[in-house]
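Lab notebook, bench 4. Still working through the backlog of constructs that have no structural model yet. Next entry is a single chain of 381 residues. Request: give me the structure tokens for it.
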Amino acid sequence: MEISKVTLEIFSKLEKQWLSRSEGSKKTRVLSIDGGGTTCIPSGAALIHLEDQIQVKTGDSKSRIVDFFDIIAGTGIGALLAAMLNADDGNGRPRFTAREAVKFISDRNTELYKVKNVGVLHRRQMFSSKSMEKVLKEALTRDDGKVLTLKDTCKPLIIPCYDLNSSAPFVFSRADASESASYNFDLWKVCRATSSDPSMLNPFHLTSVDGKTSCFAVDGGLVMNNPSAAVVTHVLHNKRDFPSLTGVDDLLVLSLGNGSLSNSPQQKVSGSGYCRNQCVVGIVLDGASETVDQMLCNAFCLNHADYVRIQANGYLNGGVEPMMEKVLNERGVESLPLGGKRLMTETNGQRIESFVQRLVGISLPPSPCKYTAVSQHVDGR
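Model written out:
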């Protein structure tokens, strides 16, 4: 029996609607890691639990965080984690698992942040640039001796710093590095640049691989300690890597904090009632991070579950392992769209597990690829 023209049109419209819904279910997945501190305990705990849960949900012990995110951003110590999780081992796979990256930073922490005395009359303590750079080079140089650059990552990468030459933020990105060698920098230098806390390290001068672009960098945390807003803005405007994105409705964002940088409320104020000078920087950085969290909470108010922020609530004192367990067992805190925060019933660990359930369920992950964030899986799925 011949199918009528009207029937064909109905089936065609239904097919288009089904395809539209199917494509809409595939969100661009964003991971952002804050700067702050030298131990990365909160973000490290979250990353290890995240990768463990991905492996549990997929049943694949070889699954990595980079397989399930389309772009990663980081500042300061968060940038080092982002770079290590994303650095290509030469075979399209990341050099480090989450547990290996966190262990490397923990084991080499005294070298990474080696304290030295400087000055003659007015002696003060600062971190050793030489010691930090040695560790960064080791982490971001392949076994075959290749020094990795921004282009040598499995997925797009975003890392900010502040450029003293231009008196403006400078954002390192793989998208720019892929466009021109004048924006491609050695990864270890990028991590050194974003970690240049001016109170503890000298500003860092770096140039692109072709020597045409230079930057005189200080700590990216001064302008973007929480890089979530920067990476969301980047993907919304980067049509080369993310051609189908139209707005925040197409995003799934996980933002990882690194705990409070300022002291307890009692320690912030002196006996005379004034705010202590040494606490001001921490207050500014904490405030900037929380402001970004508030902004994104407002942006995702209609898509509440698409933005998840994991942050340590208390003050972290003690060994790495006990503190990591403490972070995961803390009840989550969530910013409210109209201001303020609320204590959630779920722990940080449970919130990560719920996020992974959505992350894995959205679609099969694309394989790591140097040239696009939306390539198909290696077996064609």
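Notes after review: Confidence is low (pLDDT under 50) at residues 16-24, 366-381. The longest helix spans residues 277-299. Flag for follow-up if needed.
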